[in-house]
Structures are given as structure tokens and as C-alpha cells.
Amino acid sequence: MSARIPPRECDAPVLPELLPCPFCGGAGALNNVDWVMGNRLVYCACTECRARAQDIRYKPGPDHGLRDEAMYAAASVWNTRAAPASRVADDVEAEGRL
Q1: Number of C-alpha atoms within 13 angstroms, CB side, residue 49?
Q2: Cβ distance 73 to 55 under 8 Å?
Q3: Distances, alpha carbon 70 to alpha carbons 6, 9, 39, 59, 75, in Å
Q4: Beta bridge partners of 58
Q5: What global pTM score does this model have?
Q6: Vertex 45 angle, CA 41 and 46, to 5°
Q7: Three-state secondary structure along the chain?
Q8: Taking Cα atoms as reference points, which of 50, 46, 47, 40 lies closest to residue 70?
Q9: How far is the C-alpha of 65 from the C-alpha of 59, rounded, in Å?
Q10: At residue 87, what are phi and psi to the nearest 5 degrees?
Q11: How many CB atoms lie within 10 A of CB 12?
């Protein structure tokens, strides 16, 4: 009989606060879903316009460490997306640089 490994709660990365959607300003939400053959998928998506950031895939383990790292990576990807080019052009024009 093997010993069960407890969850690594103290080593879990602190998730950054999700920024608003760069397209519509709606709230972002982390989604953790089942995927193919035991793998899982984490991604952030806007709750309003359904804009979606890059998928982060991971294989779950007994201590949930990979899940926590994947969720942190998904939140970081969501928070570093660029605003649409039209919005950037509007900002530059408003500042008088265009």
C-alpha cells in the first residue's frame, strides 16, 4: 500500500488578478476542463464576448502542482495580451502622436 501525497498548498503560486478583456472590457474567468487521454486544459476567457487566450495543457499529478502552475500560466497569458490595433491607434491619435 503506497502513501498518499498531500496537496502542496504552501508551494502553490499565487494567481494574479485577471485584467478586464482587452476587446470589450468584460471580466476574465479561468476555465479548467477535461481533455483527451487524461490530460487537462486550462484557459482564460471573457465572460461577455467569449474572447479566449492561449490553451495551457498539463497532465494532472497527485499533488496538484502542475494544475496550479498551468492556472498561473493561463492567468499570466491573459494578462499580457495586447489591445486591438484600432484601440492602440485611437490612443496614439488622442495623444497627438499620429
Answers
A1: 10
A2: no
A3: 19, 15, 12, 10, 9
A4: 40
A5: 0.67
A6: 170
A7: CCCCCCCCCCCCCCCCCCCCCCCCCCCEEEEEEECHHHCEEEEEEECCCCCECCCEEECCCCCCHHHHHHHHHHHHHHHCCCCCHHHHHHHHHHCCCC
A8: 40
A9: 10
A10: -70, -40
A11: 16
**What ranges do the domains of the chain cover?**
28-94
CA distance 43 to 55: 5
Half-sphere CA count of 71, side-chain side, radius 13 A: 18
List the pLDDT tens digit at each of the 98 positions of the chain: 445 545 545 566 788 899 999 889 999 999 988 776 778 889 999 999 999 998 998 887 776 778 888 999 999 999 987 655 544 445 445 455 44
Residue recorded with cell 495623444: 95
